[in-house]
Amino acid sequence: MYAQMIKSEATQDDPEQLAAFQARIDAGEKIEPKDWMPEGYRKTLIRQIGQHAHSEIVGQLPEGNWITRAPTLERKAILLAKVQDEAGHGLYLYGAAETLGVSRDELTEMLLDGRMKYSSIFNYPTLNWADIGAVGWLVDGAAIMNQVPLQRTSYGPYSRAMIRICKEESFHQRQGYDAIRRMAEGSDAQKKMAQDALNRLWYPSLMMFGPSDKDSVHSAQSMAWKIKMNTNDELRQKFVDQTVPQAEYLGLTVPDPDLKWNEARGHYDFTDPDWTEFYEVLKGNGPCNTDRLAARNKAWDEGAWVRDGLLAHARKRTARKMAAE
Amino acid sequence: MTFDAAMYQFLLRMGDNTLILGHRVSEWCGHAPVLEEDIALANTALDLIGQTQMWLGLAAEIEDKGQSADDLAFLRDAWDFRNLLLCEIPNEDFGRTLMRQFLFDTWHSIQLGHLTKSSDERVAAIAAKASKEAAYHLERSADTVVGLGDGTEESHNRMQAALDYLWPYVGEMFQSDDVDVVLAKAGVAPDPASLREEYDAVLLRVLSEATLTIPDSRFAHKGGRSGAMHTEHLGHLLTQMQWLQRAYPGCQW
Questions:
Q1: Which residues 129-148 in chain B show a CB within 8 A of chain A?
Q2: Which of A2, A260, A309, B250 could be disulfide-bonded to A55 (CB atoms 3.0-4.6 Å)?
């Protein structure tokens, strides 16, 4: 789940048109770019898809942090393939957002000047090699929880982007689990790395689903529009239920002393993340917010001459072609 | 020099070129000027690392001392590396990165084209796979060099500066030594000097279209492919690349 705290836009459209639109969604029809849609639906989707796209882009940084230090050629190749996939996900998602009438450059500017967000998880650092495994296992695992149902979302281009993304994400999660399993079964130092990664990334992963349903004020409209398919708490519970047995299998300890199986509920009881920390991260006070945004701004600013140069060349070529005809 | 000793050196040269250049290209991850370039750079690095696995895998097999491709990549010191100096030059800006890539890709695609006809089947098989990737890399780096050379005044100046800086590292590709004599005689690999004419023809065509001027000098730094003298940059690169394997020896990753 790379979209958090997406505020649904109020909509002020004609009630009859709105009712007809809702009926299409309820009937399971896909909304396509040229179809009529409420302004609130369009704006909410731009925010949500844009935030997801930005997360893919910023998400290259914590993983890229380890590409040059990957311990084997195979791990290096897998990580490169994964990061390349993620940049590709960014590309399809920006493409999906563009069908709603916003350009990739506009979205990029909003990321760079802080008007748009990316997932809070990428404001945490990757400090040891096991973090790369843990990012695949936990972060991609949490993302998949949300993205699998979003394959059925009402907006056609978003749904189709999600179908492609999910195929690659499940590979990412498996490689992450495989990488951390190797560490958990390895030397004492490797086990220590794996446990350290889980200790630091567990609660930030739980935060990825967004605040508790009781504090999540924007869900109802998005769920009616099938832009959001499940509540935050449902997905978080599903993630915990799936992940705890995997951690046990690895011999790692989830850093939650109150974690226990609740027979009556058929689910694990677990401790909520520290929501004060979550809101601080959203405000820009996570461990890496400033550096992540600075890195993206630097890449964009220092790349201006490249974009300008290629554009100037394309124009010259077109002009020469026209002159020759 | 025995045939196997020459083969081993040759395979290290091929594998170290792709390993070291792949590392340099991968340093761009998340920092490229535009999203398409992030994807293309990661893709290029991935191809190069994949080729490294094949070349160093075969090198380890021929060395026959129980080492793996990973041992060769992560446990040799700088003096045992046999890559061209060009591959270890730092990225600097995107212009130098792409010019370095173009200068390498041109040589690489010509070299691999010859290697597909190698008398050694294992070499020919690796080259068959790698040459397709190299042809694509060359198409892309040449297009980008043309686009930026013939773009704005700033992009032109940056590309000319990159070419001027990198030019003294080109000649090393064509210097032949005892290793090359043994392999050329056996029909395993072409004599490096014999590739220069074809190389210059590609360079002249692409760089003219890019409105760039090829420096009027044939001076060449050397020492990478023989291992006699690398640049100061290689040690730093290895420090980063080999750190985990060195700090936690004998682990499975």
A1: 144, 146-148
A2: A2
